[in-house]
């Protein structure tokens, strides 16, 4: 038996009960409840699909790069203070090297994380089919 989709979006029509085929298996109210539950699953899967499309999988990596900019600026400032002899007999150069090392390490970690991470490319049709099959 084929249940037709509704014309309002995702889901199925509730008026597809065929008494000749389904009367020995379920009554009409059970049929409508089952079709309603399956339509709800389709709507939930579509919501998950929209969420996957709107969510940036590399948001944390982008934020980490933005946090690296002030650290880099601070390292450049400390190098400049040392080069122009504004500060004498201090560890400004060494602290600048430490900040630059931290920045380089953070960029390297960020690069590795972005190469390892795989965005969720689950197909809407496949996810809906698997969920509906599990329900049935």
Report on this model:
- With 136 residues, this protein is mostly helical.
- The chain has helices at residues 19-22, 28-54, 59-83, 92-116, 124-135.
- The longest helix is centred in the first third of the chain and has 27 residues, at 28-54.
Low-confidence stretches: none
Taking all Cα atoms into account, the compactness measure Rg is 29 Å
Could you tell me the strand content as a percent range? Answer: under 5%
Task: Note the gap between the termini.
Answer: 14 Å
Shape: rod-shaped
List the helices and strands and how they pair.
Elements: H1 19-22, H2 28-54, H3 59-83, H4 92-116, H5 124-135
Task: Give the tags.
136 residues, mainly alpha, 2 domains, 68% helix, rod-shaped
The gist of it:
With 136 residues, the chain is mainly alpha-helical.
């Amino acid at each position: 038996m084929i249940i037709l989709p509704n014309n309002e979006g995702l889901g199925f029509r509730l008026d597809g009960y065929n008494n000749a085929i389904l009367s020995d298996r379920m009554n009409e109210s059970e049929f409508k409840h089952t079709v309603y539950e399956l339509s709800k699953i389709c709507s939930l899967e579509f919501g998950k699909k929209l969420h996957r499309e709107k969510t940036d999988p590399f948001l944390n990596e982008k934020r980490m790069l933005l946090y690296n900019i002030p650290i880099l600026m601070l390292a450049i400032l400390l190098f400049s203070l040392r080069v122009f002899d504004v500060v004498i007999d201090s560890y400004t150069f060494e602290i600048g090297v430490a900040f630059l090392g931290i920045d380089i390490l953070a960029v390297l970690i960020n690069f590795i994380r972005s190469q390892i991470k795989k965005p969720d490319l689950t197909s809407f049709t496949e996810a809906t089919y698997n969920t509906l099959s599990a329900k049935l």
